[in-house]
Amino acid sequence: MILLFTVLLVLTSAIMILLVLLHKGRGGGLSDMFGGGVSSSLGGSSVAERNLDRFTVGVGVIWFACIVALGLLKAYQG
């Protein structure tokens, strides 16, 4: 069980790194990388950025749950 959570933690960590690097910084972002300029006129971010935000939060929740699960498993292991 500990091995499963460890592998899941490593995978989600790598995915989180990639997702954070895709987010918009001072300049571009995901939308500018693929041609840019396709943003909604309502002052919000593009659909791609909103979906990227949602996916990043979801992966972050899984990452956090893995850390908590590993901590609990190691605390009650012995």
From TrEMBL:
<keyword id="KW-0812">Transmembrane</keyword>
<dbReference type="InterPro" id="IPR004692">
    <property type="entry name" value="SecG"/>
</dbReference>
<dbReference type="Pfam" id="PF03840">
    <property type="entry name" value="SecG"/>
</dbReference>
<dbReference type="GO" id="GO:0005886">
    <property type="term" value="C:plasma membrane"/>
</dbReference>
<keyword id="KW-1003">Cell membrane</keyword>
<keyword id="KW-1133">Transmembrane helix</keyword>
<dbReference type="GO" id="GO:0009306">
    <property type="term" value="P:protein secretion"/>
</dbReference>
<dbReference type="GO" id="GO:0043952">
    <property type="term" value="P:protein transport by the Sec complex"/>
</dbReference>
<feature type="transmembrane region" description="Helical">
    <location>
        <begin position="55"/>
        <end position="73"/>
    </location>
</feature>
<keyword id="KW-0472">Membrane</keyword>
<comment type="function">
    <text>Involved in protein export. Participates in an early event of protein translocation.</text>
</comment>
<keyword id="KW-0811">Translocation</keyword>
<comment type="similarity">
    <text>Belongs to the SecG family.</text>
</comment>
<protein>
    <recommendedName>
        <fullName>Protein-export membrane protein SecG</fullName>
    </recommendedName>
</protein>
<keyword id="KW-0813">Transport</keyword>
<keyword id="KW-0653">Protein transport</keyword>
<dbReference type="GO" id="GO:0015450">
    <property type="term" value="F:protein-transporting ATPase activity"/>
</dbReference>
<dbReference type="GO" id="GO:0065002">
    <property type="term" value="P:intracellular protein transmembrane transport"/>
</dbReference>
